[in-house]
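Structure (tokenized):
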């Protein structure tokens, strides 16, 4: 089609959302080398200031109406959805989420198109455009911070008291460097008791979290080794232990037969959680798994009640990076913001208290962790999105879906086109 204008809207979900889908440097590259035209909506809080875009020759304006294709990070407010436009953002609609069905309905009613980053994937179904690793970075930094705060509240000396929240560092590099400074002292003087971190999951989120922990003196052990670790006389206190749990460590067949990963994915109702044997042995649990209600829960309220009634070792902090409310971690009852990131769940009384004080594990429940590292997460995301921009800019979005020429990873992410749900997303009708 002709010379399409591409819009980049500002984020206004909350004061923490400062990320961008496309950085000034990448937009300058497209304008200079491919002749594409962009309008970036003015923003007072965005991590890349208006002037940074203007300095690279990119137009900044309040008015995005000339744009036919509009990129954002998070959901566009319903009153700001225009008719007959193509939108690209995280819509949080693909599970039929009730809170965003009015947004999807508005897009359909206006004859517009919706492309969701969450569905941009290769032929093996692996996501190509995501913030997950940065959720892991920020989630681990915040979890260390909360472990320090928890120990401080209990009157214990803890080196992690020196760790700040991720958003309080000027950069990811500064955060890593400051945490790494704790390493020599840990190696020399150790902790009063062993510190064991468990990671549920091994994907991008988990890898990001592990990368932060790995700047400390780490000893990695297997789940099987964890079961006997606390009985050993030579258990170390001058390091942090790390154990990574895969699906076969977290679930087992109800009928006692062998674990098969594909069966677990396809028929999760045949499985139950076996994570209860590990949880009492952990100081900190990092939840980094993708979860839906068809899978067994990782941590139930009943499991926590039994652990805390036993009087033995108990988990101190649960960094619920994935944060599905009432999900894999049943006691995650609400999401939080970065300035008030946690609450304590009391499993004996089934009650909650904001902060880090109380009888029970501290729950980190920030639902938008990559916002705490806005510049780095935007740069990584923008680089991942970059290979698809030219084709999206040159597509004729007025064509019917079957004739819409797009790279397959993008076409498979088109939830709605010209006011109609596309074939792969017809199932969403029942939620509308």
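Design, position by position:
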């Amino acid at each position: 089609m002709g010379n399409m204008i591409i819009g980049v809207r500002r984020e206004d979900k909350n004061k923490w959302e400062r990320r961008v889908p496309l950085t000034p440097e990448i937009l300058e590259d497209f304008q200079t080398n491919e002749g594409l035209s962009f309008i970036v909506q003015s923003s007072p809080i965005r991590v890349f200031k208006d002037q940074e875009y203007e300095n690279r020759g990119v137009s900044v304006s309040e008015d995005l109406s000339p744009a036919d294709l509009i990129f954002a990070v998070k959901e566009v407010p319903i009153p700001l959805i225009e008719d007959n436009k193509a939108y690209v953002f995280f819509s949080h609609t693909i599970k039929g989420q009730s809170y965003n069905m009015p947004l999807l309905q508005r897009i359909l009613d206006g004859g517009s198109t919706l492309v969701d980053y969450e569905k941009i994937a290769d032929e093996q179904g692996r996501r190509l455009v995501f913030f997950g690793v940065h959720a892991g970075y920020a989630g681990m930094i915040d979890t260390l911070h909360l472990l320090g705060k928890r120990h401080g509240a209990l009157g214990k000396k803890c080196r992690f008291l020196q760790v700040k929240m991720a958003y309080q560092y000027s950069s990811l590099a500064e955060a890593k460097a400051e945490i790494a400074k704790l390493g020599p002292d840990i190696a020399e003087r150790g902790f009063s008791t062993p510190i064991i971190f468990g990671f549920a999951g091994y994907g991008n989120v988990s890898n990001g979290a592990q990368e932060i922990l790995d700047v400390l003196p780490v000893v990695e052990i297997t789940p099987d080794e964890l079961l006997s670790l606390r009985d050993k006389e030579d258990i170390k206190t001058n390091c942090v232990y790390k154990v990574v749990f895969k699906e076969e460590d977290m679930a087992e067949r109800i009928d006692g037969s062998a674990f098969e990963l594909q069966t677990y994915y396809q028929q999760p109702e045949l499985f139950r959680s076996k994570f209860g044997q590990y949880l009492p042995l952990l100081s900190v649990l990092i939840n980094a798994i993708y979860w839906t209600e068809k899978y067994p829960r990782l941590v139930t309220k009943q499991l926590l009640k039994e652990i805390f009634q036993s009087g033995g070792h108990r988990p101190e902090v649960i960094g619920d990076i994935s944060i599905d409310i009432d999900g894999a971690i049943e006691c995650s009852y609400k999401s939080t913001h970065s300035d008030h990131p946690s609450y304590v769940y009391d499993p004996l009384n089934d009650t909650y208290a904001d902060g880090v004080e109380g009888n029970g594990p501290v729950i980190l429940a920030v639902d938008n962790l990559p916002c705490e590292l806005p510049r780095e997460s935007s740069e990584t995301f923008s680089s991942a999105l970059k290979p698809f921009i030219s084709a999206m800019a040159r597509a004729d979005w007025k064509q019917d879906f079957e004739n819409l020429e797009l790279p397959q990873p993008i076409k498979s992410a088109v939830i709605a086109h010209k006011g109609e749900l596309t074939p792969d997303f017809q199932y969403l009708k029942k939620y509308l």
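Reviewer-requested clarification: Residues 5-115+377-423 form a domain with the Rossmann fold fold (CATH 3.40.50.720). The mean pLDDT is 95.
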